[in-house]
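Intended use. Records such as the Succinate dehydrogenase/fumarate reductase iron-sulfur subunit entry shown here are meant for training and evaluating sequence-to-structure methods. They are not intended to support clinical decisions.
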Amino acid sequence: MSSSPKTFDSEFIAEVQRESEQNLALCYQCGNCTAGCPVSFAYDYPVNQIMRLVQAGRKQEALSSHAIWLCASCETCTTRCPNDIDVARIMDVLRHMARREDIVSEKAVGAFWKAFLESVEKHGRVFELGLMANYVSKTGRMFTDVDLAPMALRKGKLGLRAHDIKKLAEIRGIFDRYREQKQ
C-alpha cells in the first residue's frame, strides 16, 4: 500500500512494533533520546520526532528520513529512555524497512551497506580492501580517507586478499533465503 506522507498507516505501526518487539505507545515524547543523541545535529528529524512519525503511522516520512541512515546505533537513546524502549532497535528496524522498499535517503550510507553485504555474500566475511574498492566504485569517492590506507596496511587491518572461511555456501544460503523472502 503506497501512502502519502500525511497518511495514517496502522499496518506500518504494527509492523514496526512486531519487528522491533517494542511498544510504541510507551513513548510519551520526553525528548531524552534526542537530548542524548551524539549525532542529532546531522538529522533532519530528531530521534523523538522519528518516534512520533512512527506513532502517527506516517510511513513515508519516517522511512524517507535521513536520520534513520545517519544513526550511529550507539544506543544512548535506548539507555536514556525512562520507559525502557529500545529506540536504537526501532531506528534499525526503520532502516531495514526502508532498504527493503528501496528508500535510501543517504546514498553514501546505502552504498556502503550494499558494498558491505556484497562482500560478506561473496567471501563469507568482510574483505576490507574489496569492500573499499566496491564502495569507491559505487560512490565515485576516490580519495575519501585514502590517507588512512598506509597505516591500515602496516597494522594488518587491510588485507590484500580475502580470508578463506569454512561453510561459505551456508552464508550464501542466508542471502538466497533473504532474496526469496523479499519476492
